[in-house]
């Protein structure tokens, strides 16, 4: 038992020795620092673009009109430049599903016209997406003012705790793709160079004749890459925490994304010989792995393409993240996605270790 424990500790020490050296060396590299700054800018930009901004004057409203009032027939252009776009639903459930990328859901009561004609203050029941749950008071005031301006008399929009948690197949943003992009960006701009520099400086041979095994070398490189990738993930979750409905699943999906991304980046590092070749391979990697994941959920996508895209590990990872933003995760689909992600990761790391071992011959 003591010998097994000693061997385990020794293995961890070798992995950490390789990783800690690479972490420091990468941080000293000007390109690494530039890529980190670029990633921060990109993640912040995606966050900014996915949230309502002061100059956004269009209010998309999914509306369920219980009394078939004439609300949607009124002029929707307001004096301050705001404009309502109404999307009518035949039931409350349909309205909730329709909300998607819309800012507001509204239920118009059956007595709306009668109260309006009597000079009273009609009350509309408002619904907002789960991600906006911390802004209830602000949004109630904003939408009450806008509806009052449109109708020419006071109207109150009461939201309370009417938060719509999206179904697993309903997208409300592109945030689930942003995390994939951020992790891949950091992985493939830093990790391959950890391998290529060892080959260019001929220190890989020294590593492989040292007590460290090929697997330990690969794990050390992966751990160094994970250090930087986790920084990008921490920034992502710090900005987008409000989307998460299941933190356990969100962290599992993030961990799987990190492992697969680092595996792909290590594979690039062991097979590609120069930074110039790396630049040439970047576009094919993006086209094959990232672009399909972005379009896989498009409803108008050809059935055959959708079937092919569904088996890509990046698509599986994006769906797992989306499930962590949803009301629930369909178990069979979640397990399938998890199997695809873990199987692909294991395959990539196996190939990397095999290639490193071959370089020792």
Structural overview:
There is one protein chain. With 361 residues, the chain is an alpha/beta fold. It folds into 2 domains: 2-49 and 173-358, no CATH class; 58-164, no CATH class. The chain has 13 helices and 6 strands. The chain has helices at 2-28, 30-49, 92-99, 112-117, 136-151, 175-200, 204-209, 214-240, 247-271, 275-295, 303-309, 313-324, 331-358, and strands at 58-65, 83-89, 104-108, 123-129, 156-158, 163-164. Strands 1, 2, 3, 4, 5 and 6 form a 6-stranded mixed β-sheet that branches. Helix 5 (136-151) links the parallel strand 4 (123-129) and strand 5. Helix 2 packs parallel to helix 8 and helix 6 (175-200) packs antiparallel against helix 10 (275-295).
Helix content: 55-70%
| Average pLDDT reading | 86
Q: Could you tell me the number of beta strands?
A: 6
What is the overall shape? elongated
List keywords for this structure.
single chain; 361 residues; alpha/beta
Helix and strand topology:
Blueprint: H1 2-28, H2 30-49, E1 58-65, E2 83-89, H3 92-99, E3 104-108, H4 112-117, E4 123-129, H5 136-151, E5 156-158, E6 163-164, H6 175-200, H7 204-209, H8 214-240, H9 247-271, H10 275-295, H11 303-309, H12 313-324, H13 331-358
Parallel strand pairs: 1-2, 1-3, 4-5, 4-6
Antiparallel strand pairs: 3-4
């Amino acid at each position: 038992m003591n010998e097994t424990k000693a061997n385990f500790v020794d293995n961890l020490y070798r992995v950490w020795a390789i990783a800690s050296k690479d972490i420091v060396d990468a941080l000293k590299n000007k390109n690494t620092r530039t890529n980190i700054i670029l990633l921060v800018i990109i993640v912040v930009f995606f966050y900014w673009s996915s949230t309502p901004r002061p100059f956004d004057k269009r209010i998309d409203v999914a509306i369920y009109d219980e009394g078939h009032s004439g609300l949607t027939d009124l002029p929707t252009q307001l004096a301050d430049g705001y404009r309502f776009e109404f999307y009518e639903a035949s039931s409350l459930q349909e309205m909730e599903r329709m909300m998607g990328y819309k800012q507001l859901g509204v239920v118009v009561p059956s007595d709306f016209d009668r109260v309006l004609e009597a000079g009273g203050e009609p009350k509309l029941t408002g619904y907002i997406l789960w991600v906006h749950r911390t802004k209830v008071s602000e949004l109630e005031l904003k939408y009450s003012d806008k509806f009052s301006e449109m109708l020419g008399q006071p109207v109150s929009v009461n939201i309370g705790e009417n938060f719509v948690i999206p179904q697993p197949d309903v997208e409300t943003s592109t945030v689930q793709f942003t995390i994939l992009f951020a992790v891949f960006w950091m992985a493939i701009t830093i990790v391959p160079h950890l391998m290529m520099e060892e080959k260019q400086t001929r220190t890989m041979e020294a590593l492989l004749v040292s007590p460290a095994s090929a697997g330990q070398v690969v794990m050390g490189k992966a751990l160094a890459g994970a250090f930087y990738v986790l920084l990008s993930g921490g920034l992502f979750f710090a900005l987008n925490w409000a989307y998460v409905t299941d933190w356990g699943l969100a962290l599992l999906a993030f961990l799987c994304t990190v492992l697969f991304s680092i595996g792909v980046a290590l594979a690039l590092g062991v097979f590609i010989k120069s930074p110039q070749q790396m630049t040439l391979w970047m576009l094919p990697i993006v086209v094959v792995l990232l672009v399909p994941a972005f379009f896989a959920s498009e409803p108008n996508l050809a059935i055959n393409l959708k079937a092919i895209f569904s088996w890509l590990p990046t698509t599986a990872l994006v769906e797992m993240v989306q499930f962590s933003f949803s009301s629930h995760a369909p178990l069979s689909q979640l397990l399938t996605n998890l199997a695809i992600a873990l199987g692909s990761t294991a395959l990539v790391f196996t190939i990397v270790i095999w290639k490193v071992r071959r370089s020792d011959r």
